[in-house]
């Protein structure tokens, strides 16, 4: 994989109903999510944009749920050495949730959790092509990775040790704490913030859509629910947070209204 160490390369939805989820996200985000071939043993649904892939989705099996897996969005982070990264993660207070494994023509990957139990994949891809699943302004792509964590200091230190992330700037949110921006290999990929009393712990991924107000209408019509209403963020974009019909949190971002 040509992406630098510590940068996001793939996004994956684990869901209770991939067929229903694909219909929802096609309508809301505008993705194309073709059904997997009947011969695909993983029944993996690939998420396509007009300018390349952003990720995939799959229905949780009974075995996965019996081991604690729950519907959620996850990201894959590029690393040079999966096994060495897993070792670093454990030494830094994290846990191994799924041992490293190889998938033919895909690469080697493992699922870890940070010290607060928040899961994230680490991966060394088999392809030498660059992933563009994360693009700061790419339509349909993930534009921002936001971590809401019960212990921001410990969480930030963990990701620094494991991925080499730095936090070069921050924005005060008053009593809510600091919004600390993440730099990964020289590019801003998101931020971390303290989990609020009524907040959702974990990662929220913001995918770009053409119009945030139209997205609100589409979410309701498709059976989802907006839980953080559209608001303007520094830089002029507008964002929202919602849950899909299977109860999974996700974010959307769109260009703000002209001045």
TrEMBL record:
Protein name: Glyoxalase/Bleomycin resistance protein/dioxygenase domain protein
Gene Ontology molecular functions: dioxygenase activity
Domain of life: Bacteria
Domain named VOC: residues: 7-125, 141-255
InterPro entries documented for this protein: Anthracycline_SecMetBiosynth, Glyas_Bleomycin-R_OHBP_Dase, Glyas_Fos-R_dOase_dom, VOC_core
Keywords of this entry: Dioxygenase, Oxidoreductase
CDD domains found in the cross-reference section: SgaA_N_like
SUPFAM superfamilies: Glyoxalase/Bleomycin resistance protein/Dihydroxybiphenyl dioxygenase
Source organism of this protein record: Labilithrix luteola
